[in-house]
Design a protein that fits this description.
- The protein is mainly α and about 400 residues long.
- It is about 50% helix and about 0% strand.
- The chain is built from 11 helices and 2 strands.
Length: about 400
């Protein structure tokens, strides 16, 4: 293993350590006692019954939102990558490198999405301490001495509508009681969308289940791209212009540049999405969360899924289902200000390898030649002969 590969691998090992650390901090938040927001004993929104057997337990949520997407993304990366785009004669070692890299990026995006959802959800639950819809059933309040636990409100108005503290609760199981103050945001909602929406985006990207789109191409003055049929813009003897998927020929009609995917592929991204929606609905029917808690949790999961997917994968409309490549060795651990990304171009790589001193020497040589070139410099020949011609630009 070369020094370059060791450095690059170490940088991605550090990325995995950070992902695990974020999840570990979220697990620590899970163990912390949340803030107990005061409540009123006459609030109907927290008077729902406590359901012991949830439709989707935490274990089921873990299996559906983490384990299942991990297995599916692994299978797709190993079985379907790199697909039919492989040139005959490509070494199998190169093919397996691509498979393993696509697997790595798939899991890094999934892991980061779920870790962020877990971290922020558990942290916000502790900060807000919002009562669940079934809080009173969990609490088992001391109704006879409720005035002793009063914190505020108007006891002489509306038949004693005042706030009480959580100390009024007689629930012996502190786990059940503390969980009653973890309504906002919904963890099942954020976690399910963070994992399952990421899986939907991954499958839609890999199998090209996208809305038809137009590829960027140069302006056609003859406007033949809007024709109903392909026109013969070139004779048989004239050479055709160079074309590529990103630069279709100018005589290709717009309507022939893309098409809708076959409908049998739609379940691939829709099933994970529908599963996430179902999980969210159970939190409402099991009286675990208020409607806003579920919507906000789902929004968090959506944001994390989209962010992490784009962090590691090309846009669906241009990426052909590929993930971004690895960072350059020189910038494996950081790029710095003004360097423009984590992948070195040919010119930038040349300058980086030469170092600042050698670049300075090249500029000194250029200055000397400019001083001695005379009229040739005025005609532009000095710049053309300079060793930095093309590099400095």
């Amino acid at each position: 293993m070369t020094r370059t590969s060791k450095r690059l691998i170490a940088s991605y090992v550090l990325d995995w350590i950070i992902i695990i650390a974020i999840a570990a901090i979220g697990a620590a938040f899970w163990k912390i006692t949340p803030n107990h927001r005061p409540f009123t004993l006459t609030d109907p929104s927290i008077s729902f019954p406590y359901v012991e057997n949830e439709k989707v337990s935490t274990t089921t949520l873990f299996l559906v939102s983490l384990v299942a997407p991990a297995i599916i993304t692994f299978a797709v990366a190993i079985i379907f990558v790199p697909g039919s785009s492989v040139v005959p004669g490509t070494p199998r070692s190169l093919i397996w490198k691509r498979k393993l890299w696509e697997w790595n990026t798939a899991w890094m995006g999934l892991g980061l999405s779920l870790a962020l959802a877990f971290f922020f959800t558990q942290g916000m639950k502790n900060l807000f301490g919002k009562p669940r819809p079934d809080l009173l059933s969990r609490c088992q309040p001391d109704y006879e001495n409720q005035a002793k636990y009063q914190l505020g409100g108007f006891p002489t108005v509306l038949n004693g509508m005042f706030l009480v503290s959580a100390t009024i609760c007689q629930q012996k199981d502190k786990g059940i009681l503390n969980d009653g103050f973890s309504s906002f945001p919904s963890g099942h909602s954020s976690y399910s969308f963070a994992g399952l929406l990421y899986l939907s985006l991954f499958l839609a990207s890999k199998f090209q289940v996208t809305i038809p789109y137009l590829l960027p191409f140069s302006y056609n003055p003859n406007n033949t791209s809007h024709s109903a049929f392909t026109t013969k813009a070139f004779s048989k003897n004239s050479p055709l212009p160079s074309t590529s998927p990103m630069n279709p020929p100018p005589f290709t009609p717009l309507r022939r540049q893309s098409a809708a995917p076959p409908l049998y592929l739609l379940p691939l991204p829709l099933i994970p999405l529908c599963t996430a929606i179902y999980i969210c609905s159970t939190r409402f029917s099991d009286f675990r969360h208020h409607g806003f808690d579920i919507l906000f949790g789902a929004l968090m999961g959506i944001v994390f899924a989209v962010f992490t997917f784009r962090l590691y994968h090309l846009p669906m409309t241009r990426g052909r289902g590929w993930s971004w490549g690895p960072r350059s060795m020189e910038r494996a651990f950081g790029a710095g200000v003004g360097l423009g990304g984590y992948v070195l171009g040919d010119t930038t790589a040349l300058q980086t390898k030469r170092g600042d001193e050698e670049v300075g020497e090249e500029w000194s040589k250029r200055s000397d030649r400019q001083e001695t070139s005379g009229d040739s410099y005025a005609n532009g020949t000095a710049e053309a002969s300079s060793p930095m011609h093309g590099v400095a630009r």
